[in-house]
Amino acid sequence: MPRKRLGLRHSWATTLGQKVMVVPALALIYSGAVILALAAGVAPAEVNAVSGYQWVYERLGALDPADWSTATRAVVAAAGVVGLIVLVALGWAQRLIPHVTRTSLTLRDEADGRTTVSPRAIERAVEIAARHAGVRDAKATLDEDDLQIALHARRADLIPEVLRTTKTRAQSAIEQAGLPDSTAVRVTVTRFTPASRTELLK
């Protein structure tokens, strides 16, 4: 079986989430280093001179709920909810979604030159060919060995005819594109919408 190249989807949210994670990571490194230094017997004064952990501890220990007004608590609560939503969204963006990286197809490779075409160009040609009287819209996806077409049909009673016609037109488009005859064509009707009254009067 030939090896396929996999890619991972990447967006601005993924990059932002990775940068935001640097802040808690540095905080964990800071606190862990302080605890390890104190546990190893380093003088607290020397550790504090480098890290300033006593200042941080004093500031956090001085926080008293009685000092917080109702408005301040409401603002902090709202900020916490917004922060939670943002962090959940950024965390969701970090999930790994591998996908097969598609490359251009070689239609002809001879001594005088090579002819290549992108998969999307073939899909577009098939989508145009698949849009006939019984089809509102078509979406083609070219895989390694087959071509899948999802149709939005106009009428439910014409679905069998639409499937046959679409497959024939798609196979013709594949032959014109120069793809191998072994490429299987699979047509699926995903939805249908009856023609409107305006369309019926035309």
* Percent helix: 40-55%
* CATH level 1 name of the largest domain: Alpha Beta
Give the helix/strand class.
Answer: alpha+beta
What number is the mean pLDDT?
79
Please report the distance between the alpha carbons of the first and last residues: 53 Å
The main sheet comes to:
3 strands, mixed
Element order: H for helix, E for strand = EHHHHHEEEHEEHEH
CATH architecture of the largest domain: 2-Layer Sandwich
Question: Hey, roughly how much beta strand do the residues contain?
Answer: 15-25%
Q: How is the largest sheet built, in terms of strand order?
A: 5-6-7
Q: Remind me, CATH topology of the largest domain?
A: Alpha-Beta Plaits
Low-confidence stretches: none
What does this 3D model show about the protein?
The radius of gyration is 31 Å and the shape is elongated. The protein is 51% helix and 21% strand. The chain has helices at residues 12-20, 22-39, 44-51, 53-61, 70-93, 119-130, 159-177, 197-201; strands spanning 6-8, 98-100, 105-110, 113-117, 135-142, 146-153, 184-192. The chain has two domains: 6-93, no CATH class; 105-201, 2-Layer Sandwich (Alpha-Beta Plaits), CATH 3.30.70. The chain is an alpha+beta fold and 202 residues long. Strand 5 and strand 6 (146-153) form a beta hairpin. A three-stranded mixed sheet has the order 5-6-7. It has a two-stranded antiparallel ribbon with strand order 1-2. The model has no long low-confidence stretch (mean pLDDT 79). It is built from eight helices and seven strands, in the order E-H-H-H-H-H-E-E-E-H-E-E-H-E-H. The two termini are 53 Å apart. The longest helix is centred in the middle third of the chain and has 24 residues, at 70-93.
